[in-house]
Batch of 3 targets.
Target 1
Amino acid sequence: MPYLVVDNFSAGLDSRRSALSSKDGTLTILKNAHITRGGEIEKRKAFAQFASLPANTFGLETTADKVYVFGSVTAPVMPSGVTYQRLQHPYSMVADMTKVVWSTVYGGLPFVIAEFADGQRFSYWDGAVIKDWHVGRARNHTSVATLASELAANFSLTGYTAVAAGSTVTITGPGAKRFTVTTQVTAPITATVTETQLPTEPVEEVKAEGSFLISGGSETRAYTRPYVRHIDAAALPGIRSVRVGASSATASDGQDLLNWTGTTGLKYNTYTVTDGYGSNGGALLWQLRKVINENTTAGLNHKYSARWASYGGWSGNDPAALWIDAPAEQGSNANGDIVQIEFDANPSGVYGIGELINPASIAQSPYAQHRYIATVAAGAMANGDYSRVESVFVDGINILSAPVNWKTSNSETSYYVREGINAGTLVHGYEAYVSNGIIKIKAPAGVGSAANNRTVSVNVSGSVIISQLTSMSGGRSYVEGKPNKHVVSILPATLANNPVGKISITVTDPEIADPYIFGASRVAGLSPNFAVTYKSKVHAGVGSTMYFSALNDATKWDIHDLGSGFIDMSNNFGGREDLTGFGVYQDKLAVFSRRNVQLWFLDADPAQNQQLQVLANTGCIAPDSVVSMGAIDLLYLADNGIRSLRARDGTDTAFASDIGSAIDSIVISHLATLTDAQKYAAKAVVEPVDGRYWLAVGDKIFVLSYFPGSEITAWSTYETGFTVSEFAAQGGKVFARAGNTIYLYGGGDGNTYDSSEVVVEFPYMDARKPAHLKRAKAMDLTIEGLWRAEMGFDHTAPGTREVILRASQSTFAFGTIPMVGIGTHFGLRMVNAAAGPAKVSNVIVHYDDMQPKHEAG
């Protein structure tokens, strides 16, 4: 018994030929199913409800981790898994959003074109309105005052300010820089620019100065002066210390000048005498000078000092003297301080001891009981006096923080006076410096000429001499410079009846390369219809022109924004049709109108943009039908069906291919039932798991299963019972919005099925003997899921079919499944309406050949 086998459905739907002459494996109906990579028929998965949305939400967009819808009302309570982004009208609080015109993703965030109840469209990125698309338009304002306020609010040139007042905008520049202002307007707006203030340089403040010179002074130290002539210093016990300033001869609070730590006291021959003459008494005084001075700046750091003199000429016993000087800053306060010498033993009885000490004062030392101490014969410190600058007054205010002793020299003393004045600058505001030995006093900042003629006076004591005293003079007050100002006056006063017109203002700074433009940008007032993200820019279609944003910034669209610009496509190919879509095709951007396609190479630098090719007599009627298929093809909906762009073998030239020709008549017939608006609203997406192209047009979804490696190019349809308004893909998921419901294809687990009706209708098959009568005997199926098989034998009555079997598994193990019918062709129809997955792998019809039809009686 011969049989007919159909085991490859790789051609899918094909409406190009009659149902009596179509090739085996093609289908006349394939509803709610598609063709697998192996050429089998497979039921689609369920469109499971993902979220029920509140009213007044619009659109659908996905990013890497979020599903977005949009609206202008206060954020409603949203279902889990859906993010609401509020897009508010920038001017009207009563014009609510009515639809999402377009959405895409830029920088991982939504770029949305929204339309509102007043008919205006605004562009948003990440929820914020993009000002370049609306600022500076008359239609957004009821008066010039609100327009002027908007212009000033959107001014942002560093160093400049813009302030609105009524119908004017005053632009003020930085410093004394001169700049120019021009306007660009369209009717009915007019504007005039008036330069109201020329710039002037500021006059800097000069601080007034007074001065004085320290021209004399000396240190008047208190001192005592031991003098020896005959003393036998060799017989003296070692000297342990020289004490100054004890409160009494027996007190232990005197200051030590020697810091002697040796095992024996200081002797006349402890160190080698290197200068002078004299007896051993003179040598002793030399030793005391040496050790005292060594401890003046080191060791004890007591600030006392010693001088020594030897008076030669006497035979064997030359006299010598020792001056012990108190610190200069003690002045007269050191007068009367007693001076004591401490010995290792009692010095009584030493020859000439009375020249060095007062023998009557010899007593046990209060510093160590085994030592002895006595006051010097020369007596207490005397002749000390103060020599210092006591105060410095300017205009009755003492600016010297503390009195300054005359030290070493006039110039050294001037240095300390300068420091004493500057120590209080934060309090009195004056500061001092020294120039050529003269102390200069500068007035506080901000006083200017008011400090002139302030009197400078200096109070001193002792030997200090002040000269060249001058009052404050030379001060000059600060005079503020004037900036350049321009006033832009805008007319008419009311814009209520003037919905068109716009204004931009250009500020040209001679030190800035590009002029600064604010107000209406090149895209202000335009209503974009669709957009695409490509090469770090957003490209938007408006009429016949493609506008593109700045490089790496979807919020900048104006003349001097780096990389922004526009191309009027009507200037590059005849006609002035509106653009109807963009699509990425290989390394080019395909720009569609209804009747042609232009292929462009686009560069970051707009000057390098280049038109590469024009395809005439084909075009797109629905912007959202344009979808890239991998890296090599681009599908779109045209008036004559679903078309693609692809490269010719071995060339880089694109052409309109016939990938959709198998279902042209089906698509065209379906389009004939729709309005232009419904056609324009067609939505496409590439299902990311198997890479199928879906195109939702009205209530149908046309599906392309395209697997070149398996030589499969097969169309089918999905009928969901709802009209898709938006598609969005994320990862391996496809979301579809219809009304206020979002559906997820395959459900949350990606493998959910429903009981939607699957219809597989074969053309009338003739076993390649179209003129022979055949008697159908039986059939076999390789299937999954529950199927009902119906067979027709009269192609003139295609609606008449008999149910042959209902089966949920392959039939080869069931024995013969009989059927009875005679005809030249067999018309098979299969239906699945059960829940769960379903598949058809092959169909076998068993029959007996009969005579050719022309021989039948």
Target 2
Amino acid sequence: MTIREFIQQEILLPRLQASSVLVVYDPARRYHELCLDLATPDRQVVDASESSIESREGALAALQRIGQRNELLVYVPAKAPLTDEEKQIDPFAIYGACGAIFPDGDRDEYLHLCLKAKLDYATDIRRIFAENPNPSFAVIDAIGGGVGWPVLQTLLQVESARDILFALLAPAEAQKEALKADTLDSWVSEAKTLFASALGLKLMTRGKSWSTLADELWRFLLFSEFVFDLPGPLPEALTSVPHAQPEAQPLIEYLCDLLRNDQRTQALYIERAERLEGKDELNMRAACAGIADLGPRETFPFEERSVFAQAVDAFQRDNIDKLRQVLNNREKSVWSGRGESQSQWQLLQAAANLVQSCDDAERQLPDYTRSQDSLIVFYIGTLREVDRLQREFEQAAGDHYLDAEDQIAKVKMQVRRVYRRLTDRAQELFIRHLEKSGWPPTGRLANADLFDKIVAPKLQESGRRVALLLVDALRYELGVALQQQLSSEGQVELQAAFAQLPTITPVGMASLLPGAGQGLKLVRKDNSVLPMLGDQPLATVAQRMDLLRKRYGQRFAETKLTDFVRGKHTLPEIVELLVIRSNEMDSDFESNPEAAPSLISRTFQQIRNALHKLRTLGFHDAVIATDHGFYLNTAVEAGDKCTKPAGNWLAVHDRFVLGAGIADAANLILPAEQLGIRGDFSEAGGPRSLIAYQGGIPYFHGGASLQETIVPVIDIRLATVEDKLSKQPMVTLVYKRGAKRITTRLPIMELTVGTGDLFSQEAAVDIMLEAHDKQGKVVGEAKPGEHVNPATRLISLYPGTTVGVTLKMDLEFEGKFTVKALDPTTLKTYHKLDLETDYTV
């Protein structure tokens, strides 16, 4: 391709096609003819070099006809206007504003265009420009004429110098064998000449084997890119390392980008870069320890720390644009596939998402303050999404192995304060409306009416089988996430319900029983709260299940969620109401709140398995309900607790009191009946703020807040079971091109869903990825990330897709294990991979 063709096809036409209008400024009249030659029936070229007035009229007419003719190029033989004053004088500046201009910055200088067009001959081009700053097209086209490397071209079966260099860096097996077969080593002298002319590399080795030459070429190439990208001077320890001159920079960067981005050579690039960076080679981490900014390119893996530090700095300075730019570039980085790196970047991404969402919600909040109902609408539509992002951030923080890093600690503190600021504002509004309007909200579904309004009507139809899943601590945003995962089980509807106060398990679960809306009362017994329906105490699971058994007799059965999923027995057909109980999430948050967000997926998976089993057992409906929500209080500060109000109070959990007393600035006190509480207590109250009567508690429920009191109800009309005649999806697992040992606790598995006539290209395949030891115990799970849903840990892929998924191994496990890609509903294995650990530490 000539330099003229290169400028037309690679520079001007792409911009013209992207913007429809392009103004070419050319005071040297270098591009006049090539611009005129771009005219076609669909592309008008206006030449302003002939007559300024006529060209203005022609350009204006062409712009008005831009809908008829797709493109307009205006050629102006003058310098492009730079200042606002110059643009006001220039009659053609308006066309540049409508589209694009050329030249546009240093990248469009004639020298740079020539270097791009002839990467192989950067040294020669710079020499020519040093002698003549305006060489003709013919001079540029003549560069390299007649020069070739016949032996290398024949052996490697490539033509250009850049392709020869690429082949010598990463030869295919056939190319490698061809080099070995040349017993006269006639290609070596050509290679030395090529290295010197194209890169400025004078080989130091006297060896003549491909591996010897390749070692020096790789070292020179990677270190040169590092030098070009470094904003400041080289560290003293690295000044003696050979590197290319500036004229070779375009070719150096071209080759490095190609080696990094080509899937065939990416692994080789990583291996070479890691080796060269190490202590036995350049020891670059130590040499560059004092340098904060290493440049945007990440030639070596240690440079990622510099980029990460820049991203953290941008985050802490609220420079969201800079942060987004860095995060977007991460997706293209060759080092993004390292599991340990992913962990830190995912945490930062989750932090950015949460802070952005908090900022957006804080701006919108004033529009929803006028009533309790409007605040509830805002929570259901927007604030619950903030809660989801907060949970995902805390999950990422809990999954992060390198928790001691100062950078990460500062990010966590900043994010938690931002979230706390928003939720404190929302809580203040919630309490203000609670004082005026009471609880539960008028005209909305109270949890205490849920059984009578949703479950009982279904049971009135003879033979209709209904399952009621009572899932402890399923807050509203989790209900939304769960609903999205259950669409394959049938017709799924989600609505908000409003929990019974106080939001503790005995009261909340009792409120989900028949008749609770009219008959539930709270009595004082042995200095504790006892929920009752009539004369039936409901403090325990057994008591609550006995009430249902008395009402429905043999039509009723109950079981734990874990037992139901694992059990192989069938229920008698007479059973029409099956209650399935789960308290794992509440228990996890109570006992280990830091790890609990990562364990939610276990309960979700069991629910999905249970619904599949219910379908096979002939159940028609499933209703998922909960007793209360929760608030994650991760921004715990010293002295962050509330003093109980004066009076005669019975403390209920850590955020609610029943009895009688006096309100104060820190505590809300209202008549119990105004809060929907009947029984022995005249008044009820709790902290106005999102704090507790005891300090240091990270998991809140029991009190009154949006997160604790607004809960989901998921009503599912189960689909009928149909025999599937098609085969299972073609799912395959690969680790590091067939490696059998993992050297990190965050290995990345390559997961592929194949294409075929059996599956629609529009239907995604849900996959659960787990590692099992010899006894079948789960010792590793898919780590939440770009392709892994944080709530369910499922991967959803369309046929024809290949992704990398990080597997988070248990810290205590070592030995042989099997990675399995499973059907999340049936737990059938799609594909498995036998591996073992080989940790160095």
Target 3
Amino acid sequence: MKHFFKQIDIFCFTFIILGLVFIYRDVLFDNKILFPSNFLVRFYSPWSTEKIKGWESGIPNKPIGDDQIRIFYPERTFTNEALAKKTIPLWNPYVFSGTPHLANFQSAVFYPLNILYFFLPQIYAWEILLFIQPIMAAFFMYLFLKLFKLEKGAVLLGAISFGFSGFMIVWSQENVVVGQAALWLPLCLFGIEGYIRTKKRWCYLAAVVAHAFSFLAGFFQVTFYIFIFSFLYGIFRAKILEGGLKQKTLLILFSIYIFALLLSAVQLFPSIEGFIESPRSTSSAWYLFQTYLLPITHIFNIMVPDIFGNPGAYNFFGRGFYRETILYAGLIPFVFAIYAGFKTKINPLIRFFIGAFLLSFFLTLDSPFTRWFFQLPLPLLPTFLPSRILIVTTFSIATLSAFGFSQWIRQKDKKDLRFMTYLFSVFYIVLLLIAAYGLLMLLSHDNISYFKEFNNYIVVHGSLPTKINILVLLRNLILPFIMLSFLFIFLRTKKMLNLSFVGIIVLTLLGQFYFLNKYLVIGQPEFLYPKNAVLFFLKSKNSLDRFLSLRQPMQENISTYARIYSAEGVNPVFPRRYGELLYAVKNNGKVTNDIPRVEARLSELGDKENPFEDNRRLRLMSLLGIKHILYFDDHSPKNSDANKFSEDLFMPIWHYNNWYALEYKKVLPKVFLTNKIHIQNNSQKIADLLFDKNFDLSSNIVLEEKPIELTNSGEFIELPKPLTDSFASIISYKPQEIIIDAKTKTPKMLFLSDNYYPGWHAYVDSKETKIYRANYTFRSIYLPDGNHTVTFKYDPMSFKIGSITSLLSILTILFIVFFEINKIRKIKKYHII
């Protein structure tokens, strides 16, 4: 028996490797890639508008990974290219008319595991980072559970449950940074548990580094939950192991999080600044809460994760996004987690994780309390989606399953077998009731009466589930029923321990692998942002002018990947003032700070809407320097809407298939000089001026404060006109440095249609000058008469202070490590003597 348990981890590891090789066989042996490239060319403009040779009948795809396509891979490309040039990517000029890049948490510029991008092609490093997420999570969970002297089979069960849980698998395919942030949770607890038990410095450092790595991984919401959960765990364990919470222990626990944040300061400080300047600091996310607060019936998803289908099987009909509601740690682990719940007297840790499970799950439920709680005016709370705390729920189930299975192995009381029999009866009854309800809905002639009870959950966009949906529900009950039956057989053969334990581990792995295989996204390498005529046209212009794409808008961050300039963008952090100005077009000119939190767009148009009937949009297009209009029209060329555009405003310059390119004649250059200055600090009045057709944007500028050089002037200042024409032109435009050649015979205000943001500095002939926020969200400086070289540099103080803080923290860690190694050497030398 002992020999068997010495070998079971080797057997399990071998089985995992073989299983993963089988699941990833197309990537390993058939040159496919771990990226939703098929989804990209099937649904994302401009590729979706063309038929690809050899795929005329359609491209098979899974509707999974939209954030990977539109945000993460393009931003990773931008980061890698900047680092390859030995430049820290602080600012991205390709979206939002300029936006902070490092300050966006999800850029994960300093995440240590991203070092792979230095040595491998981007897609290979990307694939490795996706591949290792569940493996690392399982390994760290294994280390954590090993501390409690559980049976080895139980440790493996818990590790498999968490590492290959629905949360880890689904988020790894949808959002590359979530899984990386989550996988450090068990190592955080490992370090805290080890330190409280042994007081060894290396355990303390393990806790600090794990928390810091989770932070740097790029998804603050998950890291925030990890910080809170691990801190509560540390307090609980200190009380148990030390007979009460000592002040010294509490201070050390606090220091773990402070030290971790100091290590992460290079990311933290710019991100705090970015958060304050972004819509997330003012915009309400309550509409998301209403979608993702879950009904109590969601508990059934622990048993049947695909009760409402699965996007990986093209049949999801649940509410919202599947990834935001996933609650699955394995059916078999859940059985043992419930068993552990009835053994709370054996180990107080079981009580802690039961409490963590119940509280975290309750906070995701749609109830009067949660609705009240998430509307409290607390910092950060209104910006978080409640369902993401399911990382704690999942981890608690996995941990309880290990304790429950270990106790089952050691338990010889026949009462436990009777309890398991009752428990299985309850499970079977639940599955049968769900099946019966589905059959009633399927057979009913009056579907509406049967659907009312489910109306708030399984209805998609207000529509009722179809017969196909119900058949999916019924079909997905089969696998849980089979797994329960096999598990019951294994438990009844407890005397045959080897067969029973191997069967339980293998059955659990098969269940998790089945889920992984269903949700895994594999694509064709030739579809990884392939060459395209529309993008080629825009790049061929080789200009700094921005573009706008209509009818089939390229409104995501494709422009970052293609290195072309867009006025739009999608990101969790971007300048709030810019979003307010663009949203005012859609809001009938009214300014509000309650705007979309992750996007700024001008191209949200219906098929029948005239894109240029709104004068506000035209005026912003001029101000933003949008010179090229891409327009997709699936009508015949003779009847094309593109032919109806006003010749006074637009000049056709390119045509390819159903794509038309027009040049907007009233576009203003990205940089120009103006002599009429209006001083106004009321946001709505500024917008009213900008949208007023009588307000000449080329010669007028609105500042929110008087230039220090003109303090004696009134609210309207008109500088003298020069005898000869003045000019300003960009001679160098880099992400973090812009050089402008300017000449004027009289003083002027120089205007640049890039976003105003803290950290930008301006220099006139190497002498620093003040940057003013102009025309609501852009930059302007006072320019004296003469010939000048104007330089804008992005050099944020938040990054400088963060860098120094992180560097000092790293040096402190190295000192502690050196001290610890020295101490160990002295102890060994003493014992040798």
